Amino acid sequence: MSTTLRGTAPRRARRPLARTATALTLSLALAWGATACSGDGDEPAGDRTAGQRHTTAAPAPEGPLPTTTTIGRVTGRLAADRRRPLKRQVARVVDGWLDAAYVGGDFPRVGGFRQAFPGFSSGAKDEARRDLRLMTNVGIAGRITGVDVRRRELRLDVLAVRGRPAGVTARVLLVFETEGDVRRRDRVAGRLYLTWRNGGWQVFGYDVSRGRAR
After folding, report:
1. CA dihedral 29, 54, 192, 160 (to 10 degrees)
2. CA 113 remoteness from chain centre
3. Strands (E), the chain
4. Least packed by Cβ within 10 Å: which of 33, 60, 92, 134?
5. Is pTM, for the whole model, over 0.85?
């Protein structure tokens, strides 16, 4: 019997800086990201205008279904040729979490889930480890034999300053079905807040919920 979820009511976690509105969150990201974007060799890629929407599929390392990544709202201006690199870079970070936490690897298994946050800041990792049953499959991984991904989507809202992306709100949707002793369809959705630090995009906060999908 599963103890992770009850009925259809989702479990939810809001962690540092994720409690604020998106605009404020991105402003905080800017405060961190502006100095981190100053090096020519380490500058992030980005998007141009809020009126354009492009989609790309970033291959998931182990999952059978790739992540479909879309640029949503862009505040500020970024060169159009930075759109694809930005999506690829952020999707790589998000996929690192989704694969390590929910859909990648072999099942059944136990252990290893505390390392499921490779693209998270040290503070965000600590908080996610406190939410391990929500932010990973640790509660059911020993009782399932496989995971079948049904939906894997990512929409990026971007804040650009001086021609560079300074902050990203990544809106995540993952729907998957499990096989084995626990057979069900789960839906993980929410927002990851990222800023450019130390030569790469990093998650510094999140607002994630999990529940049964229909």
Report:
1. 0
2. 16
3. 11-14, 55-58, 67-75, 144-161, 164-180, 185-197, 200-212
4. 92
5. no
